[in-house]
Write a structure and sequence with these properties.
By secondary structure, the protein is of the alpha/beta class. The chain has a single domain, classed as Spore Coat Polysaccharide Biosynthesis Protein SpsA, Chain A (Alpha-Beta Complex). It is built from 7 helices and 12 strands. The strands form 3 sheets. Strands 1, 4, 5, 6, 7, 10, 11 and 12 form an 8-stranded mixed beta sheet that branches. It has a two-stranded antiparallel ribbon with strand order 2-3. Strands 8-9 form a two-stranded antiparallel sheet. Strand 4, helix 2 and strand 5 form a beta-alpha-beta unit. Helix 5 crosses helix 6. The longest helix has 18 residues. Bound molecules: cytidine-5'-triphosphate and magnesium ion (MG).
Length: 245
């Protein structure tokens, strides 16, 4: 493998998890007894192509995250770094990118809140970047039809919202992480784009570069609301049963 294609993953894990309700920062909440972040780190380190994982911890929680990583079994072949995060996801990712050493040519960005992504999805993203795509996102077709509306605004919660358009569902994809990038491209995107965005690939789109979609996976869903915790624990229980534990 050439130096240029060594791969690192940045895991933004600095969010509070407001939509999940009161409690510890979302990444530190347990799923079947193990912190969500540890599941996410293991999901990334499961790929033999990943040589470094940079965890972007809650701003006050870097020491706690270092202890967690030391206390859980992780593959020997992978290096780990922990840096404190920022006020937005975008800032947190930027702080993770700033910590990358030389010799890394491919960078994945993966939400700590997607703890159950299968290794085949991770490898598929890495492969597409290595084959020359500057930005790759795993995504799935939508189950629901999507409407564009004129939002009612915070002062009128629950008010009827006029529909503006109905995009053709077959042309839409729901995007997941890990999103994969040529390192220099992602660094340039973070240095150039200042709009607040919800994913990294859209910053590369704003540079005018081609972003491509590869197949995502149902189990790469994001733990966002309380019901997602129930689903995540059910997926883990099914895996455990299938593995014969
Ligand atoms: N994230 C981050 N730094 C922030 C905000 C979010 O690193 N300042 C991370 C989260 O930890 C999460 C990922 O970005 O792994 C995706 O964000 P989201 O699911 O929105 O998580 P939260 O922002 O924590 O949740 P909420 O929006 O409900 O508060
Ligand atoms: Mg958020």
């Amino acid at each position: 493998m050439s130096e240029e294609s060594r791969t690192a993953v940045v895991i933004p894990a600095a969010g509070r998890g407001v939509r999940l309700g009161p409690g510890a920062p979302k990444a530190l909440r347990a799923l079947n007894g193990t912190p969500m972040l540890i599941h996410a780190v293991r999901a990334m380190a499961a790929s033999r192509a990943v040589s470094l994982v940079v965890v972007v911890a809650p701003p006050e929680g870097a020491a706690e995250v270092k202890t967690l990583l030391a206390d859980h079994a992780l593959p020997e072949r992978t290096d780990f770094l922990v840096v404190p995060g920022g006020a937005t996801r975008q800032e947190s990712v930027k702080l993770g990118l700033d910590a990358l050493p030389e010799g890394i040519g491919v960078v994945l960005v993966h939400d700590a809140a997607r703890p159950l992504v299968p290794v085949d999805t991770v490898d598929g993203v890495i492969e597409a970047v290595r084959e020359g795509a500057p930005a790759v996102v795993p995504a799935l077709p939508l189950a629901d039809t999507v409407k564009q509306v004129e939002p009612a605004g915070p002062d009128k919660p629950g008010a009827p919202e006029p529909v503006v358009a109905t995009p053709e569902r077959a042309r839409l994809r729901a995007v997941q992480t890990p999103q994969g990038f040529d390192r220099d491209t992602l660094v340039r995107a973070h240095a150039t784009v200042t709009d607040n965005v919800t994913d990294d690939a859209s910053m590369v789109e704003q540079l005018g570069l081609q972003v491509v979609v590869v197949p995502g996976h149902e189990e790469a869903f994001k733990v966002t609301r309380p019901l997602d915790l129930v689903l995540a624990e059910a997926v883990l229980a099914r895996r455990r049963a299938n593995d014969g534990f």
